[in-house]
Queue: 3 jobs
Job 1
Amino acid sequence: MANPIKSEYFIFKGSVLERMVASGTKSVTYEQLNRFAHKILPEQTKKVYELMTKKIIVRDASGEVINNPFAYRRVAIKNNASNWGSCSSQRNMNLNMHLVRLPEALMNYVIAHELCHLVYFDHSKQFHAIMNAVTDGREKALERALKKATPDI
């Protein structure tokens, strides 16, 4: 069954999706996009999670190391119209299926952003400190690039 809003999606140059489809393909159906997203996004979340747990040590207010601060329960793939992702206090992550239409660096940035929200559920200085550590100080640049690259979702 086709999506009632759009039945085809343009493949953005340099996107993760572009690498998944046959050369010369100009668009994919909603079903194809959904299938790719359900394959790629959980795998990519695991990769970003593993990289972050090796790279970042998070401490609580008393200086004690927090074990497994980026641990999540599950990843749900959704067709959101207004956000790239979210997470819940139950440590569940929701990712927009359209993330696969972005370049891998921006997709990873969004995934890392949501994983960091599992430590700080706000956009505090501490949250941004972790994001900057994860992105090697490139958080603002990646955020700007994401805004420029955002396809119609």
Note: DSSP finds five helices and five strands in the chain.
Job 2
Amino acid sequence: MNLKQMSESKAEGRCPFCGKTIDVETEFSDELSLKEFGISGLCQSCQDEFFD
């Protein structure tokens, strides 16, 4: 996936890694995870895999 596709996925509310539709109100475990979503577009599950 290229940068443009990743940006489009994020804009559509989908995780660019797994394609999951993200509900911003319920998806994230804390403010830091929500902030990371704003940067990368990753869902909580993909953030957990990537950063842990």
Note: The first helix runs from residue 3 to 11.
Job 3
Amino acid sequence: MDELLGRQLPYSADAEQSVLGAMLIDPDCIPEVVEALSAQDFYIPENRRIFEIIYSMFTMSRPVDPVTVLEELKTAGVYDEAGGRAYLFQMMDVTPTSANVAKYAEIVRDKATLRTLAEITAEAYNNAVSGSGESSDILENTEQRIFSLRHNSTTNGLMPIRSVIVNAYNTLSELARTKGKYPGVESGFSGLDACLGGLKNSDLIILAARPGVGKTSFALNIAQNVAEKARKGVAVFNLEMSREQLVMRMLSSEALVDSKKLMTANLSDDEWEKIAHASSALGGSPIYIDDSANITVGEIKAKCRRLGDELGLVIIDYLQLMQSGRRSDSRVQEVSEISRSLKIMAKELNVPVICLSQLSRASEGRTDKRPILPDLRDSGAIEQDADVVMFLYREDYHNRDGEPTNECECIIAKNRHGETTTVKLKWLGQFTKFSTLETHYDEPPRR
């Protein structure tokens, strides 16, 4: 590594020694150091071993001072490797004061971050020069590691409740100032927004239904509403349909032109004009579409990060077509890993993530065919990881002999932030479009 970079990796011997010296002089500062650093942050092997010993003693609630640490080094068999008595007392002599231990630790941590960054870029260089792997794989791996490095370099830690109360009060004040708005991203469906308070950042939202009920159309309707009305960037990942097929659906919904006519382009002059206006509106909206098959959560995360602060919503259609990126013993285990990764991704990106999911056939054998949580296909981890689970149910879908009503129920079966309820929607199948039925969703739902 050093040979590749042509220079010594960054580190500060003085800062490392001062951190350890402060811990020996004043054991009261040990908790602050333990929270800020790990053994891997120390570059000099002797310093790393001494820190490991002090860390272990602190964890086991043993007294920490020069004598006890020396004894523990002997017991662990690393006395000579850690420099012995002379080195330990030398560190204490060169430490100016324990009062500045936080600054010393910050220097050690910064140098460790620079070393890790150098290792990541050096590995990328080696892989690129040797041609070991596809360029896309090397880019993805490098980008992922750099993002993780940035994410792990900052920790929130414990926060006093008085600070949290201030943040909560500021949020309430902002909501009061913008009365009628919701704390989350507005989906454009008034009933749904009233029940959920909008689509909240860092939430994993599962949208599930039987094939053909309209879950893709509903998700695309939300994407259009968020992009056009809230002016937030929406990343749409569809593993089943092409970009062109998705855009055709969105054009039909936007222009209110029969989707079947779009398939044949058998349009009147008036309909062509509607399509032109819809194309202009959609073309100016911040919607980004990816139709890669067999995509992984890591790849989705990497692509979303490139949108930066513009990103406001992620939609994935659908979960069961995704790959975990590594071999699993069973599909259930793989889906569990994917759902957990999606929740972590939502938290890291700090945007709502809507992931569509298939349902099992279990509901078909029941008298009441409305979906329930156990109907989620492949893994119970989906229900566990999700903040919100929504089902779409259309009576017309199951009872095709009856009089069509075009009504759809959006069943909120899980809501980590509030109660569960049902929102009534209108399904306009020829336009692949949903709308909220006129219902007073601001009133408490009847039980």
Note: The beta strands are 204-208, 233-238, 287-290, 311-317, 353-357, 388-393, 407-415, 421-428, 433-436.
